[in-house]
Design brief:
Layout (H helix, E strand, L loop, with lengths): L3 H28 L4 H14 L3 H37 L1
Helix pairs in contact: 1-3, 2-3
Length: about 90
């Protein structure tokens, strides 16, 4: 049994999870262009990290999922505020 095989498989799965999360975040940002500043922050962070896949995975684990949750929450809050303002206007 090759001891490196489980590690390489785990890395491949983590890489796919990372790619999927990035894709989901990009789709979210396309639907919510007012959140484009988040994409700019991610791009700057990834440019600093460079092409190292392990460092990018760590960035993903530490930041992207949490950032996506915060963006969704902020969008929902803003949507609620807009709804409240629309009711006040009526």
């Amino acid at each position: 049994m090759n001891a490196a095989k489980p590690w390489s498989e785990a890395l491949e799965v983590s890489s796919l999870n990372y790619q999927n999360a990035v894709w989901e975040l990009e789709c979210f940002l396309e639907k919510h262009p007012n959140m484009r500043y988040a994409q700019e922050k991610i791009d700057k962070d990834l440019a600093k990290i460079g092409p190292n896949p392990l460092k990018r995975l760590m960035y993903f684990k530490e930041n992207l999922l949490d950032m996506r949750k915060r963006l969704v929450q902020k969008t929902e809050e803003l949507s609620d505020k807009v709804t409240q303002l629309n009711h006040k206007i009526k």
